[in-house]
Amino acid sequence: MRYSLKQLAVFDAVADTGSVSQAADKLSLTQSATSMSLAQLEKMLGRPLFERQGKQMALTHWGVWLRPKAKRLLQDAQQIEMGFYEQHLLSGELKLGASQTPAEHLVPDLISSIDNDFPEMRISLGVKSTDSVIEGVLDYKYDLGIIEGRCDDNRIHQEIWCRDHLTVVASAHHPFARREKVSLAQLEQARWVLREHGSGTRKIFDSSIHHLIGDLDVWREYEHVPVLRSMVANGQYLTCLPYLDVERFIEAGELVALNVPELEMERTLSFIWRADMAENPLVECVKREGSRMMKGKPSVL
Question: CATH code for 88-301?
Fold first, then answer.
């Protein structure tokens, strides 16, 4: 083999950043050394791996083909180096992306469990909407994602981790809070504050209600759950959130779960990873620890 791991690392860094100068900073190399390594790799392979698009370096179809294979080799090299250096079979960094609900309620316990059993394994965490986590996995920003709902992209493998459900909530002083049952007509008359489009929560809510109510009065859309909770608790709005996000506020009497018999909003929380990714022991470790963590818990959270 004529190419080196350093050349593949340069290729990977340029693909990640879209810039030779940023790749040089990432690898602590000079820009000229970075450019030279990339040029040598392209010459050895006999194919252009990038083309310039303005100030950005975009992958050619050859670069797209090479990227997952280069990632795999670099990952294996890191495992070998870290494994022998630290004398731990599971070591190195895993980049995890998670949507808001699992990130807040489940991921902290998952990371703590892994820290106890595999102290040399490092987990970086990005908290994004479901759509952004999927994009991050596809763009190699994350080795593993945790999302709400389904992903139908055939470039992604998906494995159900657990299930939760959404609930419609109001403040304790909202007129609907005292009703034994709330009708669809009453929901249609209410003011709503909801998660933004692209979030897993919003997708499930929209798919559950669109065939029942033609036009909801949506006043505001926000990314952050605490904002929605506070607006509902202190105003005359309704919202729909995962039960995990509102459970303790319902128990404290600040929010009330409304009984809407027509709405059933159970959903899945799933691990996702690239279909073309080679077996990664760090990914397998997180999934295994996640499954162990859920044993003995209710089937629907």
Answer: 3.40.190.290
